[in-house]
Amino acid sequence: MKKYLTIIALLTIIFTGCKKENDPPVITAPQSTSVEITETVELSFSFNAMAGFKSASVSATGGEAVIKNDGSEGSESGTIVVTFTAGKDIGAGSVILTLTDNDSQIVTATAVLTIESVPVISVTQNVTANTTWNTGNIYILEGRITVVSGVTLTIQPGVIVKGREGSESNATALMIARGGKIMAEGTADSPIIFTSVSDNIIPGEIASPNLAPTLNGLWGGLLILGRAPISAEAEAMQIEGIPASDLNGLYGGTDPADNSGILRYVSIRHGGANIGEGNEINGLTLGGVGSGTVIEHVEIVSNQDDGIEWFGGTVNVKNAVVWNTGDDAIDTDQSWGGTLDNFIVINPGDECFELDGPEGTMVAKHILKNGSCYAFDAQGLADLDPNSNVDMDGIYFFGLKAEQDFDELPTVYECTFSNLQATIPAGSNLTDFFKGGSDAFATAVATGANTKGANPDVFLGWSWTAVSGSLNNF
Predict the structure, then answer these.
(1) Is residue 436 assigned to a domain?
(2) Residue 444 falls in which region: left (phi positive, over 0), alpha (psi -120 to 50) or beta
(3) Which among 19, 207, 311, 385 is least surrounded, fewest beta carbons within 10 Å?
(4) Does the residue 164 lie in any domain?
């Protein structure tokens, strides 16, 4: 019996000596990589865990990291995908992944990152060949840059264009000449932003990190010129804000369907540089622009002169917001023959609307509909000429104060004012604000709660106006 016990004891010793502990888990980090500030990248870590995967966690320097795809419970191998978003500081960064197996063994691996600045490209010459400005880049206008006739400038989503400071003949601007095209198609998630070189904004941001939305005149603006008819002294004229010596500044012609390209999800900020006494550049200038051009989802923030100004032409504009202009928010001249649909005006320095009539023999009517105007800081509501030719429908005015007025109704052409609405201060009368031709306004304007006006939802997410909270009462 003792003999058998001895054999069993020896076997126990042998088997115990052969038992092998599970090896610690192993993680393989991805190779070191470069990432631009605020850019988001995915990093794949592979692992082996003989005892089976239990859990993982991640930390980072130079940015933020989260686990996108985790390991499977109990798996002996696999891949863990981590999403890293770089911060705004240039330099070194890292992602540290920690893995625990079912034997409570812990191991870490580090992915080394280099955080680089966003590419900044100076634009010093006119655009004379088809050109693309690429997503992720910042472009600096070093002067007045023109996209010449026959050439197309494509601006991809998320691009930021910054104008160098300058005034008079040195005022910076981007101008699309007659026959040229701009294809600036941003998206609701990635708008295209035109701003000043003093703005520290980078791709991926909506609000400026350092400039107030009331600061203006830091650069010029965006001018689009076309060959659609205008009502002026001649078939073609030199656009306001551009020196007469620059013949690229001509606008007007005989093609109402002229096509100057596309503006979609575009924000234009801090412009309106002065090239001479009373000759500033508007946020968005549309001179003789034809109906073949698409302009929708546009924002003008803090321009020293007007927000959007039309000089004749037939282009339609949809979903526009104009916030904090030094002069008028919406300005029309020379028989513009298009429609502005769904728009918001907030605090113009002068009038919400300046709507002038034809200056030549060509006569066209424009339509303003579905608009909301917060006029607290405005000097007035609307300024029209006797020969203005406009229909207004579904416009809501609020934030009114004493001395503001809609002071003149056109008399030369038959115009229609319908579904207008205003919230007026307590103790005031409607005719305190809608003075000229008050009998005509008596059936056109209603007081009370807001049931007319714009749909503000189309500006959410992509516009600085919405992100700032300035649309909360619309």
Answers:
(1) yes
(2) alpha
(3) 19
(4) yes
What is the C-alpha separation between 351 and 345, in angstroms, rounded?
10
**Cβ 98 vs Cβ 16: under 8 Å:** no
- Calpha distance 49→77 (Å, rounded): 6
Per the domain annotation, does 16 fall within a domain?
A: no
Instruction: Enumerate the H helices of 64-136 as residue ranges.
Output: none
**Predicted TM-score of the model (pTM):** 0.86
Backbone φ and ψ of 74, nearest 5°:
85, -5
Tell me the residue range of the domain where 331 lies.
Answer: 120-466
Among 472, 464, 466, residue whose Cα is nearest residue 194: 464
Residues 405 and 313 grouped into a single domain: yes
Residue 242 and residue 183 share a domain: yes
| 294 CB burial (10 A radius; 0-12, 13-18, 19+) | middle
What separation, in Å, do the N-terminal and C-terminal C-alpha atoms of the chain show?
97
pLDDT tens per residue across span 393-440: 999 999 998 888 887 788 899 999 888 888 888 888 888 888 654 444
The CATH number linked to 55 is: 2.60.40.10
In a domain, 66, yes or no: yes
Same structural domain, 126 and 71: no
